[in-house]
Design brief:
Layout: E1 2-7, H1 16-22, E2 27-30, H2 37-44, E3 49-51, H3 60-63, E4 68-73, E5 76-81, H4 91-94, E6 98-100, E7 108-112, E8 115-119, E9 132-140, E10 143-152
Parallel strand pairs: 1-2, 2-3, 5-6, 6-8
Antiparallel strand pairs: 1-9, 4-5, 7-8, 9-10
């Protein structure tokens, strides 16, 4: 069983609540709009990190990040990007089990055609009507399950 912490839209703010919620993760995915390379350094203190560049990520550090990331964990394929509408493949045809994305700041989890579409929401600066959240994926037995973890209401 592998636990993957999922975070997005930090926009330069890594809350202590997010750090605490990500502790114990085997891996961490950041689905873009990181805001500062220091965020990734701090996340790497917790677990190995895979991150993609978001539309608000600029500068020399951000250019080095891919726009998409493909990972295989315990035989389960995960595809990470920032903006879901830029998905350039058919996940079920490509054998992808989960598509992880950010951008909207709205936490969302939905299974469609055998694929989990998972947005952990925003862990960065609070927006008026949206909670501050991260996500957690649990991979085991050839399956992936997602959970939204609310940090601040």
């Amino acid at each position: 069983m592998t636990t993957i912490g999922v975070i997005a839209d930090t926009h330069g703010l890594l809350r202590r609540e997010a750090i605490a919620a990500l502790e114990g993760s085997d891996e961490i995915l950041h689905a873009g709009d990181i805001g500062d390379a220091v965020i990734l350094d701090r996340l790497r203190d917790i677990a190995p990190v895979a991150a993609v560049r978001g539309n608000a990520d600029h500068g020399a550090w951000a250019v080095k990040l891919p726009e998409t990331e493909y990972l295989e964990v315990e035989g389960v394929s995960l595809y990470v990007l920032h903006i879901l509408s830029k998905l350039d493949l058919v996940p079920e045809a490509a054998g992808i089990s989960a598509v992880v994305y950010g951008h909207s700041h709205v936490p969302h989890k939905e299974a469609k055609d055998g694929v989990l579409y998972f947005n952990p929401g925003s862990a960065g600066p609070k927006r008026v009507d949206l909670p501050v959240t991260i996500g957690r994926l649990t991979v085991g037995g050839g399956k992936v399950r997602g959970e939204i973890v609310e940090l601040v209401r």
